[in-house]
Amino acid sequence: MKEIGVRLLKIIKEMRNKFSLEYVIYLFFSGALLVSFFAMARSKTGHPIHYFAFLRNGYGEFIGLWLLLLLLTILFFSNTWKLTGVAKKMAFILLPAEILILTMIWGSKLVDMWLVLFSAVYAVIFSLYLIWLWHARRIGSKAAHENLGGWIKKQGWMRLTLVLVIIFINVFFGLRNIGKFAAVDEALWTFDRIPHFWKNIGEADWNGTRVSDKPGLTVAMISGLGLVFQDPMEFEKTYGQSSDPQATENLNRAFRIPLYIVMALLLPFFYFLVEKIAGRNAAMFAMIFIGLSPPLIGMARIINPDSILWVFTGIAILAYFAYLEGEKLAYLYLAGFFLGIALLTKYVANILFVYFFALIFLEYIVHKKAYAGIAVKDYFKQKLSELSILFFISIVTFYALYPAVWVKPQRILLATIQSQAFSSTWPLFAVILILMLIDIFLLRGKVLSVVLGFFEKQKRVVSSSVIIFFLGCLAFVFVNTYSGMSFFDFESILASPKSSYFSSGLWGVLLANFYPLVFGISPVALLLLIWASLRLLRKNKQFDRWAFYLIFFILLYYVGSSVNQVASPVRYQIMIFPLALIIAGLGVGALVDAYAIKVKQLYGLFLFLIAASAAVLYLNYPFYLSYASKLLPNQYYLDVKDMGSGSYEMANFLNSLPQPEKLTIWTDKSGVCNFFPGKCSSSMSNNELKAIKIDYIVISSGRESRTTKMIASRLESPLNYEMHLNDLYLGKVAPIFELKINGRDGQYVRVFKNNQE
C-alpha cells in the first residue's frame, strides 16, 4: 500500500508540474488564437463580431505577429532550442485552431484566405513531422543517404562528361528556333491558365488556382517564368491574326524555354537512378536513348502537361526501383515526391498507385531469395508501411503545392480514388487491401503464403506468359503494318482516340497502342528492347527483374487505357517512351557486361550512338515529335494527332507571296494564322465563310479526320469555293505547295489556290 501511495503522489506531482505557468500561458495562446480565428471566419461568412472588427483588414499581420509571440514564448521557457522540441509544442498549441479551420473548410464555409494559408502550412508541417517520426523509427536499420562524392568518383570524369555532352546536344536541338511553330491548345495555357494562376496567387485567391482539370499546376508554375519577359495580354486580341510574326515567336519562346530547361536539368536523374539498379553501362546507354530521343525532345518543346509528365513519372518509378535494390530511404522519399509532382502535372499519373501496389507482389514472387528469411506477413507489413509513406509523401506534395486543394481538400480525391481511372475500380482495390490486412493481422499471412507460394513456383510460366504476350503484340504490329493495315487501321484508330473503341473494339485499341511505340523509337533501341525481352525467356540465366517490371508497366498502361476505351497516340503515351528506352539500355548494358568489352571499344560505341542520334535529330528538325523510324513504310506516319507540325512553314510560304497582308486564307490548321499577316479563318461556319472571299486553302493530314467528319454532318460544304475539301484530302487536285513532314507521304501540309472568281 505504501508503494501505491508513493506512486500516486508522484503522479499528482507530475500533473501539478504540467500545469505550471508555462503551460498556463500556452493554454492562453491556444484559446485566444482559437477564439480569434473563429471570429475571423465568422466575419467572412456574413456574421461579423464587432469586437474583433479591427482584425478584418489585417489578418495576415495578426497571424504573423501572434505566431511570432508564441515562438518567442516557447524559446523563453525552453532549456535547449532544439527544432523538434519547439515544433512539437507549436503543433499541439495550434492544433485546436487547425481543427476549427479544417472543420469550416470541409463544411464548404467561406474562410478568410489567411486562415486557409495558415491551415495549409500547419497541415504540411505536421505531415512532415509524421514522416520524420517514421524515418526516425526506420533509420536504425536503413541507410538514408550515401556519399555523393564517392559516387561521382566511381563514375569517372569521362562518363560524366558524356552525360553533359548528351544534355548539351539535347538543349541545342530542343531550343533551336523553339518559338517558330504553333502548337495545338497552347493558347489555353499562354493566355488563360498561366496568367490567371499567377494572378490568383498574387491576390491570394487560392480557389482560383485550379486552372485546368488535368490539373497542369507544374506547367503553370514553370512556364509562368515567361511572364517576367512577356505579357500575353498584349497579344491576346490579335493572337491567331498576327501582323507581327516576330512578336508571336518571342511570346512562344518566353513560355516554352523554362519548361524545356527544367526537363533538361532533370535528365541526369535517369542516369543516376538506372546506375543504381543496373550499373554504369546500362545507365549510359539509357541516357543516350532518352536524352537524344526525337519524340521526347519534341514533346518537351510544347506548353502542355505531357511535355514534362514523362520526366516526373520516369524518375518516380526508377527511384522506387532504387529503393527496392538497396532499401535506402532517400530513394523512397524521392519516389514519393516525384509521384506528387506527377499528380500535379496530370492525373493519369495515379496509375503509379496501382503499379507500386502490384510491385510488392511481383517483387516477392520474382525476387523471393532476397526475402528468404522474412515471414510473408512481416514482408507485407514492411512493404505496405513503405508504400504508405511513399503515397503519403506524394499526397503531401500534391497538397502543399496546389492552393486550390487548401480551400477544398476533397480535391485530393480527384487525384486518387475519384479519378477517371479509379472511379469504377477503387472498391475492388479497397476489398483486396482489407482482405490482405485481415490475413496479415488475424491469420498470420496464411492465405498470402499459399497464393504467393503457388505463383512463386510458377513464376517462370507467369513471367514467360507476360513476355510472350508483349512480344506477340509487337510482332502483330509489324505484320498488320506491312500487310497494309489489313486487320486494323491503326492510324484511323489513333486519329479518333476517344471514339474508335466502338468501331475497333478492345483488341483494336490495345494493339493500336503498340503502333507508336514500335515505330516511335530508333530501330537500334527497338531491337535492343526485343532482345532484352527475349533474354527474360532464357532459362538458367539471371532474371533481369527491372526489365520485367518495366514491361509489366507498359502492358498495365496499355490495358488500362484500352479498358477505359481510349486509344493512345504519341502524346497520350509519351510517358511510356523513356521506360521502353530504359529496357533497351538494360539489354545492351547486360550484353556489354557479358562480353566484357574493352574500355576503348565501349567508349567508341558510346560516341557512335551519340553521333548517330544527333544526326537523326538533325535530319528530323524541326519535326521531332513527328519522328518515325525507317522501319515504318513511307505511306504511314505516327503523329496522327499532330500538335501543329508544318504551321510555321506554311505561313512562311504564304508570306512569300505578293502582298500577303491583303490575302485571305482558310486552313484546318489554325496555327498557320499565328504567323500570317493577312486574314485567316479556320471556322466551319457557313455564315462566316460566305461573307469572305478565300484566296488560298491550307489543309493537313493531321486534321483530315476531324474536318471530313464535320463536313459529312452538314447538308452542304461550309466553304464557298469550287473545289470540295474531300478532293483536296484525297489528292485529286494538285497543290501549289506541299510539305511532307520528315519526308513521309502520309503526313503532309498542302496549299491550294482557290479558283473561285
Protein architecture, described:
This protein is an all-alpha fold. It has three domains: 2-138; 149-626, no CATH class; 647-753. It has 31 helices and five strands. It has helices at residues 2-18, 21-43, 59-77, 83-106, 113-138, 148-155, 157-175, 186-202, 217-223, 245-266, 268-278, 280-291, 294-300, 306-326, 329-345, 351-366, 376-400, 403-407, 426-441, 446-457, 459-482, 490-495, 501-520, 523-535, 545-563, 577-595, 599-619, 647-655, 686-689, 704-712, 725-729; strands at 664-667, 679-681, 696-700, 737-740, 748-753. It has a five-stranded mixed sheet with strand order 2-1-3-5-4, with helices on one face. Helix 8 (186-202) packs across helix 9 (217-223) and helix 12 runs parallel beside helix 27. The longest helix is centred in the N-terminal third of the chain and has 26 residues, at 113-138. The chain is globular and about 105 Å long. Residues 44-57 have low confidence and may be disordered.
Number of helices: 31
Cα-based radius of gyration, to the nearest Å: 30 Å
Number of strand segments: 5
Beta-strand level of the residues, as a percent range? under 5%
* Physical arrangement of strands within the biggest beta sheet: 2-1-3-5-4
Low-confidence stretches: 44-57
Number of domains: 3
- Mean pLDDT, as a whole number? 84
Helix percentage: 55-70%
Distance between the termini: 115 Å
Q: Please describe the biggest sheet, giving its number of strands, its sense, and whether it closes into a barrel.
A: 5 strands, mixed
Category from helices, strands and their pairing:
mainly alpha
Write down the overall geometry.
Answer: globular
